[in-house]
Write a structure and sequence with these properties.
alpha+beta, four-stranded antiparallel beta sheet, single chain
């Protein structure tokens, strides 16, 4: 009798922990589902045995359960928290691969933006492919203008073919992050090439930070969008949603860290540290 009561008490404690835990493992969640649906439990099977199974499975998977500090060192322990990402598990409950692809594209776009617009040679080498939004469509400057390098210090854009696009081109040049100061003369745009000064390097470094923040925000927006979809799904258990949410957040953090690494490398290059 003593053994039976111990097993029941032990199993009951585990059930409580699982129900109120932040990150229960999949196997024990399945057991809880069976416990709620009593019709699936063999009536001949002792309750103590059933609860012992739950306890055993929970014990072997305890490394997946997240624990939170309740003392002054909570902030110091925050960085030690690790979440394992199970791609197959995520894909079962929402459009995981679509979300992951969009996050990857955001990081790749940041890297390409740095190459095109934030190189110390970008003022002379990246104007051809600088994007311009005109009449609701996106073009590059070489589609709208004839680019002439008058001398090493000046570039001229001949806008005779598309004079109506001059305001859009001027706006794109000023917002490029290349520290450009274009001047219009009728259907021509004169672009003095800035010297590679310390101030110019600092401006480019600030541009790199601004583009990173924009990328970070887009990744977090994807994260929050998909978490909201899961929370709005009443068919999913609360514990399951918490599990999925933790994994989505971990994935988003991974791509933000990658974007941050790319930004820091670019800033180091612009400042001449490398």
């Amino acid at each position: 009798m003593f053994k039976i009561m111990t097993a029941v008490e032990r199993g009951t404690q585990v059930v409580f922990a699982l129900r109120h835990g932040r990150n229960p493992c999949n196997i024990t969640l399945q057991y809880l589902g069976r416990l709620d649906a009593k019709s699936q439990i063999d009536s001949r099977r002792p309750l103590s045995t059933f609860l012992n199974n739950i306890s055993s499975d929970w014990s072997c998977k305890h490394d997946l359960v997240r624990y939170y500090a309740k003392n002054k060192d909570k902030k110091n322990n925050k960085g030690q928290k690790k979440v394992s990402i199970d791609e197959n598990f995520l894909a079962e409950h929402f459009k995981y691969h679509t979300m992951k692809t969009e996050m990857e594209k955001a990081v790749i776009a940041l890297k390409n933006n740095y190459i095109k617009n934030l190189s110390l040679r970008s003022s002379t080498g990246a104007l051809d492919s600088l994007p311009v939004t005109f009449e609701g469509d996106e073009y590059v400057i070489q589609d709208l203008a004839q680019i002439v390098r008058k001398n090493p210090k000046t570039i001229i854009l001949n806008m005779t073919s598309f004079p109506q696009a001059i305001p859009a081109v001027l706006e794109s040049l000023k917002a490029s992050g290349m520290n450009l100061n274009p001047q219009q003369d009728k259907t021509s745009i004169f672009i003095p090439i800035p010297k590679v000064t310390k101030e110019h390097r600092e401006n480019l470094s600030k541009g790199a930070k601004a583009l990173f923040v924009k990328t970070k925000d887009s990744i977090k927006e994807l994260q929050n969008k998909n978490i909201k979809v899961l929370k709005d799904n009443d068919a999913l258990a609360t514990d399951l949603v918490h599990n999925l949410q933790d994994q989505i957040t971990a994935l988003a953090d991974k791509y933000v860290l990658e974007a941050q690494r790319i930004m820091e490398e670019k800033q180091s290059e612009l400042k001449g540290d490398s």
